Amino acid sequence: MSSGFSRSEPLQGLRSKSGGGFRRAQERLEEEVAALFEQFRGPLLRYLANCGMSIPDGEEVIQEVFLSLFQHLQHGKSRENLASWLFRVAHNQAMKRHHQIRRDLEWRAEAAAEEDVADPGPNPEEQVVNNQTQRRVLSVVSAMPEKDRRCLSLRAEGLRYREIAGILDMSLGAVSVSLARSLSRIAGSAQGGENS
Amino acid sequence: MSKEDTHLTDEQLLLSLEGELPARAEKRVRAHLGACWACRARRKELDDTIAGVVRAYQSEFEGKLPPIEGPRALLKARLRQLSSGEKSKGFVLRRLGLTAAGVCGIALLGVFLFRFGIARRSPSQLRELTVSSPDSQLTPGATVLANRWAVCSQANVKNKAVPAVLRQAVFQEYGLQGADLGAYEVDYLVTPALGGADDIHNLWPESYSAEWNAQVKDALEDRLRDLVCDGSLDLGKAQREIATDWIATYKKYFQTDKPLAEHLRRRAP
Fold first, then answer.
1. Per-residue pLDDT tens for B209-230?
2. Total structural domains in chain A?
3. How far apart are CA B186 and CA B20, in angstroms?
4. pLDDT-derived band at B1, boundaries 50, 70, 90
5. Residue B26 sits in which domain range?
6. What is the percent of chain B where pLDDT is above 90?
7. Which has the higher per-residue pLDDT, B75 or B112?
8. Are B141 and B243 in contact (CB under 8 A)?
9. I want to staple B229 with a disulfide (CB 3.0 to 4.6 A). Which of A45, B152, B180, B252 is the partner?
10. What burial class does residue B38 get, using C-beta atoms within 10 Å of its C-beta: 0-12 exposed, 13-18 middle, 19+ buried?
11. Can you give the CATH number for the domain in which A174 is found?
12. Are residues B206 and B79 in the same domain?
């Protein structure tokens, strides 16, 4: 996953610049962090929500993540694979708030059901099939072990196996086993649905 | 069927689909797939499942994430605060090379100015604009992804604290920098207790001295929440009504043209 982040500005030694240079470098850094926020806020928010965090809590975590990123870059630390860095820090922050996390997949499924009734869309038959498939997938995902859910969510956000392994502190093999297990379950649920 | 021809596992098929297999293993998988219909069919099933997962993830949140403007403005304000903190630490203490005696002198001057009322303006000198209703351009209201179950299963959090940087941004947005900020409560237009968001578009400075003040609005919020949670009012409708014109909504739900006396009890900050 490309971070899209410019690597042209070496930040080591930012603090040693003269007053005007320091201010300009800080402003550039603020802009760069804001640009990364635009790019990654959605994927990070989806990941945290898929881990069972509420959207407002997720927003707060993401604010902290990007303030940490600002300090990380300000101190001239590594700019390698910032996408992976962002997900890792978001994941760790989410773990710290674990006591606040609640699994809200059930109410989201309920919300989806309410919306089906309220807004069937322009093509009701297609909409019903799509909604059924979506609900089936989400219901299987919600019943998965937490680690499998996180693996699948990170992969859906475009992270590679090695990056997922780093974020979740798992071996590469464990990531592939987890993803294969998850997809087999989802595929199995589709066949079960067709047969029933 | 020889041992080499036994079917590929889901993990092997997935690693192949994902381009995660080493070259030699990938070659073996491809050779097997060339000869085995069952594994090709299973590979397609897995590929279709991936497509289904992606669609489910995307559609689950499509159009449902709160707008980015508020969180982005908050982040920028916090970054600016962080930068200026760094700058003042580095610039004042290090770059200008102030001595400890100089710092003490500035501190003493500060104490002197404070004691003799030179540095602070008294509240009477500050202007106060009475604000009862938000500017709909600046504060149209913003909500989080929440349904009735989520809203009603949480405690009714009243007067949730607004982060200081966001408060400042709201005062600036409403042009109240020179006003007595103690005369206002930065209030949520759609309260978090009804799914309102921590978003600058959902915040406004509400005068304590106004007839239609924050306490009156709190009473309306409690009423709407009760109605939503007992199922007699749709959550979306409650959010829309309070965001459109909270005073008209109060009049409607309390059947009155004036704030009720029991809602006006506490007006001071």
1. 788 888 889 899 999 999 998 8
2. 2
3. 52
4. very low
5. 9-61
6. 21
7. B75
8. yes
9. B152
10. exposed
11. 1.10.10.10
12. no
Which residues in chain B are contacts of A156 at CB distance < 8 A? 53-54, 57
The verdict on A110 and A167 lying in the same domain is yes
More confidently predicted of A131 and B242: B242
Domain extent for A81: 14-100
Burial class (CB in 10 A: 0-12, 13-18, 19+), B88: exposed
| B27 and B47 both lie in a single domain | yes
Output DSSP code: residue B195: T
Whether residue B22 is found in the same domain as residue B47: yes
A16/chain B closest Cα distance in angstroms? 9
Per CB-CB distance under 8 Å, the chain A contacts of B9 are: 180
- As a whole number of Å, the end-to-end CA separation of chain A is 39
Contacts of A64 in chain B (CB under 8 A): none
With 0-12 CB in 10 A as exposed, 13-18 as middle and 19+ as buried, what is A154?
Answer: buried
Residue scoring higher pLDDT (A130 or A49): A49
Domain final residue, candidates A58, A82, A100: A100
Percent of chain B whose pLDDT exceeds 70 = 75
In a domain, A174, yes or no: yes
A4 part of a folded domain: no
The total number of residues shown for chain A amounts to 196
| A-contacting residues in B 127-166 (Cβ below 8 Å) | 144-147, 149-150, 153
Give the separation between CA B84 and CA B90, rounded to whole angstroms: 10
Put simply, whether A156 touches B (Cβ < 8 Å) is yes
What tokens were used for B185? 């409560």
Interface contact B76-A71, CB threshold 8 A: no
Considering only the beta carbons, identify the residue of A26, A107, A108 that sits closest to B60: A108
Give the total number of structural domains in chain B.
Answer: 3
Please report, in angstroms and rounded to a whole number, the separation of the first and last CA atoms in chain B: 83
pLDDT, tens digit, for every residue of B190-209? 898 888 887 888 888 888 77
Q: What is the mean pLDDT of chain A?
A: 77
ipTM above 0.85, yes or no: no
Percent of chain A beyond pLDDT 70? 70
Same domain for A147 and A90: no
Q: Is the pLDDT of residue B267 over 70?
A: no
> Which CB contacts under 8 angstroms, 24+ apart, belong to A15-21?
A15/A74, A15/B86, A15/B90, A19/B91, A19/B95
> Does residue B80 sit at the A interface (CB-CB below 8 Å)?
yes
Interval A166-195: pLDDT, tens: 999 999 999 999 999 999 999 988 776 555
